Write a sequence for this structure.
């Protein structure tokens, strides 16, 4: 009977081609939609995480309290030991120290006088360690507009808008003017080796990136860091896991008399990010739920239409001695075959599309040009994200909804009056 | 019930609920059909032919009375038992052929054998034989859309006889056919009846069919008003 059913499906295009196209499209849309929602939301979290909060981050309790002021006099000391400890205790995360500092950036002319000068917000990031993933995290390969990556502790990358504002060129020596961690006046020369475009309006106007060793030299912060950022290895923010290690870490470091005790916060603990994460989780859940529901209605309707169109065939089969249960089961078998084929095709369409947009992104820079959010750092390029569930999520609309629709529609078989078969089959 | 009795009906009553009342479709029907009979249920529209055919085919249940078909008491049989009886021992021929359009002649005829779980090699033999019987060997790989009305009905007949049922129920099998095709179809069925001893019951008011019947049961207003044996039907000449 299976081969008989299969032959029918293959030959009857309205029973196979059309439903398979519908199922494939719906599955592809569900996959892309989920990838886009998760990707764009996680993209927002990722940018915030990379630039500001990590998935979790460790700092001193005192620094945490004043963090808006970038109080490097309250920074973590003996960072190498803390890093070793974190790597052993929390191997699901990789850890990277960071120094946040601000000051003035001065561009001298050929006589050493100030040619241009402006405020700068700078991050000293661990770019140059052998196992560093910071180039990957910052996506500098595609974000560098001019020049090259940082190769030396005195190299600096400057936001392209800041470079334009100050008239910076590649190779220029710029002087950072600010204070050390001991609150002493400092100047330090960096060489501009490139400009970048993060696609985040306010940051591109005043940001400079340097290697953490350069920042340490500039600020006299030997083996110190403002914060240590932790990231899941797959770079996908896992709220539950982050909360769990935050609680565990803080329970262990709970000496309230020590202002300089290490303290961990999760991404959700940053300003309003918790609300945002909850909102995003619910939004993704609701949007996908609605989408799946609509998909199920479409597929259910398709099951009903198919049942109506094959009313005669079903009648003949019942008259010939198939039981209603057998007919019902064969319809479910058919819809399972169609749903499975459609799901495979839809997944083969949806996944590469999602992978493509994950790599290339969708640029909304024009819309975000004037956004001045500082709490939440938003990228103007949205990327999808391929998560493991995308490989099987298509089963829900593709197979389950199709089969469920057929099961509901097929109940009509049980209501069919056998005594009317001859009359019905006369027409 | 003797071995030769295919159908035995006693004091059959069939009523349908209509509004708060009942419409009596058949009443006081007593009817017996012997093996290899070639019988027609004849009467005007609404006389109860199709209802009686439905009940004999196990597609409907009697309100009262007993009906025994091929050794099974249908009044007390479950839906599945009746379906099993239809599948194994009955064949159906419809006015509108009701072939499955996406399957070939071979596959349409093969369906009852698949339902009866006949092994593949044996299926091929039986289908080829049935298609030969109805003279469609050259069309065995054609689909219904490529066949004429007469060829479609011959395919339907092959499908009805392929599993060698003891009883074939045919509801106006020639109603959609011209005279030439109707005679051709009737000749095939007469031959099957003679050579395979298959019993036939027709519901019809087609004069062309009546000429072939050996027994005509006249129905009027749900009752048998006349049950006649035809001495020299046209089939005798075949």
């Amino acid at each position: 009977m299976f081969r008989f059913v299969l032959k029918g499906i293959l030959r009857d295009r309205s029973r196979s081609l059309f439903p398979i196209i519908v199922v494939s499209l719906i599955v592809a849309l569900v996959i892309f939609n989920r990838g886009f929602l998760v990707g764009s939301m996680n993209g927002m979290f990722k940018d915030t995480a990379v630039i500001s909060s990590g998935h979790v981050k460790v700092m001193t309790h005192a620094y945490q309290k004043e963090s808006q002021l970038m109080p490097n006099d309250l920074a973590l000391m003996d960072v190498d030991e803390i890093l070793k400890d974190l790597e052993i205790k929390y191997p699901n995360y990789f850890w990277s120290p960071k120094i946040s500092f601000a000051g003035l950036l001065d561009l001298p002319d050929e006589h050493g006088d100030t040619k241009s000068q402006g405020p700068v917000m700078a991050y000293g990031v661990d770019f140059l360690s052998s196992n560093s993933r910071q180039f990957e995290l910052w996506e500098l390969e595609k974000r560098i507009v001019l020049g090259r990556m940082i190769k030396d502790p005195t190299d600096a990358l400057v936001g392209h808008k800041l470079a334009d504002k100050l008239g910076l060129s590649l190779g220029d020596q710029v002087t950072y003017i600010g204070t050390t961690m001991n609150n002493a006046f400092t100047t330090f020369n960096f060489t501009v080796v490139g400009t970048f475009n993060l696609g985040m309006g306010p940051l591109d106007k005043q940001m400079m990136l340097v290697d953490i060793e350069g920042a340490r030299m500039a600020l006299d912060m030997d083996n110190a860091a403002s914060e240590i950022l932790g990231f899941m290895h797959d770079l996908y923010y896992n709220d539950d896991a982050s909360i769990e290690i935050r609680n565990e870490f803080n329970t262990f470091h709970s000496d309230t008399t020590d202002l300089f005790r290490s303290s961990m916060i999760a991404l959700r603990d940053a300003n309003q990010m918790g609300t945002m994460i909850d909102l995003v989780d619910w939004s993704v859940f609701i949007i996908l739920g609605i989408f799946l529901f609509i998909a199920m209605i479409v597929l259910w309707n398709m099951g009903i239409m198919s049942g109506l169109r094959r009313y005669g065939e079903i009648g003949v089969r019942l008259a010939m001695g198939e039981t209603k249960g057998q007919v019902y089961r064969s319809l479910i078998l058919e819809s399972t075959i169609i749903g499975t084929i459609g799901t495979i095709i839809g997944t083969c369409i949806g996944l590469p599309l999602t992978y493509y947009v994950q790599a290339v992104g969708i640029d909304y820079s024009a819309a975000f040009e004037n956004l001045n959010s500082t709490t939440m750092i938003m990228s103007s390029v949205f990327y999808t994200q391929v998560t493991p569930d995308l490989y099987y999520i298509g089963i829900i609309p593709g197979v389950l909804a199709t089969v469920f629709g057929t099961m509901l529609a097929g109940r009509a078989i049980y209501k069919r009056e056998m005594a009317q078969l001859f009359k019905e089959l006369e027409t | 019930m003797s071995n030769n009795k295919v159908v035995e009906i006693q004091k059959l009553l069939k009523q349908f609920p209509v509004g708060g009342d009942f419409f009596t479709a058949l009443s006081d029907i007593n009817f017996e059909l012997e093996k290899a009979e070639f019988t027609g249920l004849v009467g005007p529209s609404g006389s109860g032919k199709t209802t009686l055919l439905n009940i004999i085919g196990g597609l409907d249940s009697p309100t009262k009375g007993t009906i025994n078909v091929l050794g099974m008491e249908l009044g007390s049989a479950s839906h599945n038992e009746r379906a099993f009886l239809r599948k194994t021992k009955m064949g159906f021929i419809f006015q509108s052929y009701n072939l499955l359009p996406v399957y070939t002649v071979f596959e349409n005829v093969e369906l009852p054998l698949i339902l009866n779980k006949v092994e593949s090699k044996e299926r091929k033999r039986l289908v080829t034989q049935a298609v030969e019987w109805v003279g469609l060997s050259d069309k065995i790989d054609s689909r219904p859309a490529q066949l004429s009305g007469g060829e479609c009905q011959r395919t339907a007949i092959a499908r009805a006889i392929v599993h060698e049922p003891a009883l074939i129920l045919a509801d106006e099998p020639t109603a959609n056919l011209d005279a030439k095709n109707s005679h051709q179809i009737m000749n095939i069925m007469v031959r099957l009846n003679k050579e395979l001893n298959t019993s036939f019951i027709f519901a019809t008011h087609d004069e062309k069919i009546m000429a072939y019947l050996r027994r005509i049961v006249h129905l009027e207003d749900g009752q048998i008003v006349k049950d006649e044996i035809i001495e020299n039907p046209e089939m005798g000449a075949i």
Q: What stands out?
A: DSSP finds seven helices and ten strands in chain B. The two ends of chain B are 32 Å apart (CA to CA). The longest strand of chain B covers residues 5-18.
